[in-house]
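Ligand: S-adenosylmethionine. Inputs:
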Amino acid sequence: MSNFNILLNSAKKEHEKGNFLGAKILYIRLLEFEPNNPDINHFLGVIYSHLNDKQNAYFYLKKSIEIAPNNIYFYTNLAKLLMLDDKTKQAIQLLIEAIEKNPDSAETCFNLANIFKMNNNYHKAIDYYKKAIQINPNYADAYNNMGLCQAEYWRSKDAFESFKKVLELNPNYPNAKRMYHVLEDKLVDEERIINKYKTSNIFSKFEYNFDENEIIADYLTLLKKCLSDTLRIDEESVEFEKVNEGGIIISFLAETMIGIKRLNNLHYCIVETIKNNIAGDLIETGVWKGGATILMRAVLKAYNIKDKLVWLADSFEGLPMPNTELYPADTNSIWHNMKIFNVSIDDVKNNFRNYGLLDDQVKFLKGWFKDTLPTAPIEKISVLRLDGDMYESTMDAMKNLYPKLSIGGYVIIDDWGIIPNCNQAITDYRKLHNIQEKIEFIDFSGIYWKKEVDI
Ligand SMILES: C[S@@+](CC[C@H](N)C(=O)[O-])C[C@H]1O[C@@H](n2cnc3c(N)ncnc32)[C@H](O)[C@@H]1O
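Predicted complex:
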């Protein structure tokens, strides 16, 4: 065996043992023999990553790619380093480059998908898991992670099929059996909800003929379609019906999950309060990506209203852990586990910016409702929209904001029909304050009423 190979074997052994300092010295000596050996440069880069010497790690990992641009593993390790260094965009860019150079690498597609998944970009993640599966149809890990993304985004049927496939490929795959059964139950549940709203006569309740300038009407109609990502869906299709009537099945690209009917209702409530000179700002408690509040700002803009603000109250990091001592109704709440609700304030601001609607009339209340709402600097409200999903979130919003709602203003509850805890909070609050105003149904879940009596 040559001196080079003896040294290389020792370096690899030290590397495997986790003696990174020892391995580093040996790899550096090896480079003296072969400075352009791509593997040695790569190994040394990996060692420097372990030693947290980023500058040298970047240098050697990049050099290995320069020398051997078609070696997919070199890209993977550099991408890992970029991820550790919080440089997600560069990592994504690098792996896209790697895939362009080597389109048959299922593993690179899988790695790229994992980065998108980690960043809650499930749409893109699923695209790349699909590519990985196309290249390697037996890729159980890709099916599994794709299933997790689909489940996270309420694509229950697709997720169910993915886990079914995982189990076909590997019946002992950890957790796949559990996910398969959870999704099986969920599908039955979703079917029940869809049937409920399809057969219910409240289904078509909210109809409103907007009597407004044609350009305003066109702008707001177009906006609602963009916000719900239904612009390209045939209005006669079942898919359209599900998205718009139910707000259950949502698009990855939509900025709102509430469906067109509830957007129409919001539009209606704002216009009514404008026409009737009802004082007060607009607020939504629970904004997610901000879609409903973007519509709020757009309606004010379309009607040239400058003296009303749009308030967005949200943690911008998802739902709270249930406080079962204070709110036993939330005991079974699992929403806090769902990563899709973690939408940052910057992402929401960006969504406003994309529609040209981020300005001084838009205000943010970041934090848990229990902390932000009691001291929110809001004097009066004309439209109060609640979409916090839990008993606690609904009660906190009612308790702190309903007294500020002007007579003639509207309160809208998104989850009344679909989430029993939310329904319970509204029932309790109405009972406590003897609220008698008639509840109007928007669709199978959303309700609203016009405030007629102060509490
Ligand atoms: C169902 S989403 C809202 C959907 C949104 N209205 C739309 O148009 O798509 C619920 C939101 O409420 C927020 N949320 C729920 N309870 C909260 C609480 N107690 N404090 C702060 N934010 C809360 C979550 O972060 C999440 O963004």
